[in-house]
Specification:
Layout (H helix, E strand, L loop, with lengths): L1 E6 L4 E8 L2 E8 L4 H16 L8 E5 L5 H18 L3 E4 L1 H7 L9 E7 L5 E9 L2 E4 L4 E3 L9 E7 L2 H4 L1 H7 L2 E7 L6 H13 L16 H9 L1
Parallel strand pairs: 1-4, 4-5, 6-10, 10-11
Antiparallel strand pairs: 1-2, 2-3, 6-7, 7-8, 7-9
Helix pairs in contact: 3-6
Length: 227
């Protein structure tokens, strides 16, 4: 299975190529530079592997939530690539991609994935690990940290830069006997590709025109789209 994945929903920009279980990746934290970086990253990976875009089995992208501009960029790039090569697309949750980074160490634990949504809010979702992959056990939402209602857990992992910005508030909400934090974690295309593999295998893929973003904060998306 060969899957090309991109992720630009935060200040990190990355692309990854999964080939028969092995992943190669380009990753760079470069705010406002995604437009200059993402396609060269894609080209480098394909050339390094000695393949062409048409040889991919599927494409994947971080469909949000995240920065409106970043999510919109990933959507546009992946739609363009999918149309040009007539490839299906896996639209992967950015919050799930963050959570997947700790899947290997999360057996029996709840994963609280949080990204800074600005304006005093976080993008939030809760996950459990099953057979090496994270599965959502709550809805994705954008919410003020002090308005979260979370069931207590014996052991948990908090991951994502929402924990960096709102760590004090979130620790008051998450009543876990053991809580490990990775507050600097950003979504990466590597995990987008890994989650996409499972989606492709289970038929959770769409055509290019149906590869759509998820913003959660629709009022902001509508305002920016009208500008």
């Amino acid at each position: 299975m060969k899957i090309l994945a991109i992720e630009t929903a935060t200040e990190a920009c990355s692309a990854a190529l999964l080939i028969d279980g092995e992943v190669i990746e380009r990753f760079q934290v470069a705010p406002r530079e995604h437009g200059n970086l993402i396609l060269p990253m894609v080209d480098e990976l394909i050339q390094e592997a000695g393949l062409s875009l048409a040889q991919m089995d599927a494409l994947a992208f971080g469909r949000g939530p995240g920065s409106f501009t970043g999510v919109r960029m990933a959507t546009g790039v992946i739609q363009g690539l999918a149309f040009s090569a007539d490839l299906p697309v896996a639209a992967v949750s950015t919050l799930a991609a963050v959570a997947q980074q700790v899947a290997a160490e999360a057996a029996g634990k709840t994963i609280y994935s949080a990204l800074d949504a600005r304006m005093g809010e976080v993008y939030w979702c809760e996950y459990r690990q099953h057979n090496g992959y994270v599965q959502a056990v709550s809805d994705e939402r954008v919410i003020a940290p002090n308005k979260l209602q979370v069931e207590s857990a014996c052991a948990a992992i908090g991951i994502g830069h929402g924990w960096d910005t709102y760590g004090e508030e979130l620790r008051k909400i998450v009543q876990a006997e053991q809580l490990n934090l990775l507050p600097k974690a950003l979504p990466r295309a590597r995990e987008v590709a890994l989650l996409a593999l499972k989606m492709v295998e289970s038929g959770q893929i769409v055509s290019a025109e149906n590869a759509l973003p998820v913003y959660l904060r629709d009022n902001v998306a509508k305002k920016k789209a009208q500008q």
